Amino acid sequence: MPRFFCPFPLTVGAIVTLPEHVSHHIHVLRLAAGDTITLFNGDGGEYVATLSAPDRKRASAEVKTFSPRDVELPYAITLAQALPEGSKMDWIIEKAVELGAAAIQPLAARRCVVRLSAERAAKKKEHWEGIIVSASEQCGRNRLASLCEPVEFDEWIRQQNLHRRILLSPRGEQSLSDWARHHPPQAVTLLIGPEGGFTDEEEAAAIAQGVLPLSMGARVLRTETAGLAALAALNAVWSEI
Q1: 165 and which of 103, 145, 160, 211 could share a cystine (Cβ 3.0–4.6 Å)?
Q2: What is the pTM of this model?
Q3: Among residues 192, 194, 187, which one has the least CA distance to residue 161?
Q4: Within a 10 A sphere around the Cβ of 227, how many other Cβ atoms?
């Protein structure tokens, strides 16, 4: 059943006008009046609705039933990702959503090739939010991952955090999976460096702020691989996968 995100209140019995981009997708899929779709608004749960006379630019649907279905992880994982080059961030965000990340924090580290002006950062954030919506529609999540404002690493690392922050580094003396096996499922933030890694000074600053350095094994993973592999590893150890 096709799933669509609608950023407004949904109630059983209501007839709602669907957003223009949703109407376009419905047209592309050649759905017709009477066809059933699933809608969600990010507040949790999902709604079954029936289409009524859709056309190319406008479609409406009657909300029929509500299901409290929830596929969120029982522990919140934040991916603090140093900005990679090109379109890698798009791919990282998409896959992180599929793997259950609760939040994405873009970071500007010293070795980042990408530098975002305020205007460009705003456009990128809007683009990434669209990726979160699309990935959530595809993977069945009914709550959207939070996307934080891009921030400088030096500023972010000084912020106090109520849950464990983990720095994935080849210098880590303990592996992430070994650490996870000896700790209960909990909220964590995974800190991922850019293509050239964090500098020694950045790693030292992170550790001084209480960040735990852990390794991902003997092989050095690319920036677009490390965070996703760590997400999958935690899910496997903590029995999600």
Answers
A1: 211
A2: 0.93
A3: 187
A4: 27
